[in-house]
Design goal:
Blueprint (H helix, E strand, L loop, with lengths): L1 H8 L4 E5 L2 E5 L1 H9 L18 H4 L13 H12 L2 E6 L2 E6 L2 H9 L11 H7 L12 H15 L2 H4 L3 H18 L6 H17 L12 H20 L12 H29 L10 H6 L6 H32 L1 H14 L8 H5 L2 H13 L8 E3 L4 E3 L2 E3 L4 E4 L2
Parallel strand pairs: 4-8
Antiparallel strand pairs: 1-2, 3-4, 5-8, 6-7
Helix pairs in contact: 9-10, 10-14, 11-12, 12-14, 14-17
The structure holds protoporphyrin IX containing FE (HEM).
């Protein structure tokens, strides 16, 4: 085989006629063509680690030193061991991890109008057969149509500005709570309380009481359901999906968590519609629910499903983004001081943060970006399913395989 390759590389230049034009096929072309290797040649964990469903599980604690909560470390291990590309069995599917920015760019540039995102099997199973499922399991035009209403508001900084005063109150509560003890134990938890409170404010215009009123009552319950939901969802990605065969206790709990959140969103929506009818609330009230109520063509079910999606989507990601930002700042006291000075100079000591103040905080933006660069808060990065056969780093990757960026 090796000899064949060498011989081909030594071939003299061949001339060929294609489409009426005379094209020259050089030695380099031939060498490049022959150098393309198959999917099976991509490096990655081998043997039992390639078994469907349990292959990835076996690479985590207690079988190895990698914790399920530190997937970033497992990714780094892949990068060092296998180089810029490696393939890993995720559930029953294959995923190709890319670790080089230019290759990541090529892979993303290949996606069409409707990027196909791999779905999480547990969510797929739960939403299967529902008339108006979550945006997380939709693809193509259906996904685009469901996503569009909220996207209109969320992608424009001008429209986002109206949420700032209320979100600034949430931030004040977070800081006040920190000031009480001057220490935050188990940082991801207070950050999750903050992001849940912020998400409730953004989506429903409501204070949920997650930062302050933690004991008893519905407000505390939502936090429990949020944590339960993410715990089971995360675990499901590395476990055998027994729930496909029968209703496992953990699947039952998952349904309880998501049902609670869906019911809560539905109740808030009904209440807002009633208040609008009774004119006890204003259509200008700054929250995504009101935006959607004002969007022509959105049914109650669409609004409710969209709100649950948006409420959930921002929780773990924001909490992790903050956790890592605080962690990086704690490790670099000089940068922390510089950021503190910028904020002190630009943001008034009391009252809400105003939009223009946010525009005068370039160092804050830089810190956040640097923190994202050092540890991206969504450990698996952005993932896509290839919609056509694609060549990356000399490997032919068939359509249907997912790729994830993790530089
Ligand atoms: C710093 C905080 C956040 C980070 C790091 C983050 C990260 C991400 C990432 C990596 C994706 C996948 C993007 C892709 O594959 O192209 C995503 C998607 C998404 N995020 Fe966030 N996010 C954050 C905050 C939020 C917030 C606050 C919301 C809601 C208000 C939100 C709603 C969404 C939605 C709706 C999607 C797309 C789901 C889909 O179309 O499949 N995210 N986010």
């Amino acid at each position: 085989m090796m000899l064949q390759h060498l011989l081909k590389r030594r071939l003299v230049t061949i001339c060929s006629v294609r489409s009426g034009r005379r094209n020259v096929v050089t030695n380099t072309d031939i060498a490049e063509r022959d150098a393309i290797r198959g999917f099976q040649d991509i490096p990655g964990p081998s043997g039992i680690y390639q078994w469907p469903y349990i292959g990835l599980r076996l690479q985590l604690k207690p079988f190895t030193q990698f914790k399920i909560t530190r997937l970033d470390q497992l990714m780094m291990h892949y990068k060092h061991r296998y180089g810029p590309i490696c393939k890993v069995r995720m559930g029953k599917r294959w995923m190709v991890f890319l670790f080089e920015p230019s290759v990541i760019e090529t892979a993303f540039r290949n996606e069409g109008r409707y990027p196909q995102r791999p779905t999480i099997m547990l969510l797929e199973h739960y939403f299967k057969g529902q008339s108006c499922p979550s945006v997380s399991i939709l693809q193509g035009k259906e996904w685009f149509e469901m996503r569009r209403p909220a996207q209109r508001t969320l992608k424009k900084p001008q429209t986002l500005a109206k949420f700032i005063p209320k979100l600034s109150e949430v931030a004040d509560d977070f800081v006040d709570k920190f000031k009480e003890n001057n220490v935050m134990e188990n940082l991801p938890l207070p950050c999750l309380e903050y992001s849940t409170e912020g998400s409730g404010t953004l989506c429903f215009g409501l204070r949920l009481g997650c930062i302050r009123n933690k004991v008893g009552g519905k407000e505390a319950a939502i936090l429990e359901h949020v944590r339960g939901f993410f715990g089971i969802l995360g675990e499901s990605m590395y476990s055998v999906p027994w729930y496909l065969l029968y209703e496992t206790p953990s699947y039952r709990r998952f349904v309880e968590h998501i049902t609670f959140m869906t019911r809560t969103a539905g109740e808030h929506l009904q209440r807002a519609k009633l208040e609008l009818r009774n004119k006890t609330t204003d259509t200008d009230d700054a929250n995504l629910m009101m935006d959607m109520i004002n969007t022509p063509g959105m049914t109650t079910e669409m609004i409710s499903k969209n709100l649950v999606d948006l409420f959930i989507a921002g929780l773990d990601s924001t909490a992790m983004a903050l956790t890592f930002l605080f962690y990086q700042l704690a490790r670099s006291p000089d940068k922390q001081e510089k950021l503190f000075e910028e904020i002190r100079d630009q943001v008034p000591a009391s009252g809400p943060i105003l939009e223009d103040a946010l525009l005068r905080l370039p160092y804050l933006k830089a810190c956040l970006k640097e923190s994202f660069r050092l540890v991206f808060p969504v450990s698996i990065g952005s993932t896509r399913v290839l919609q056509k056969d694609t060549q990356l780093l000399g490997y032919n990757i068939p359509k249907g395989v997912s790729h994830s960026n993790n530089e």
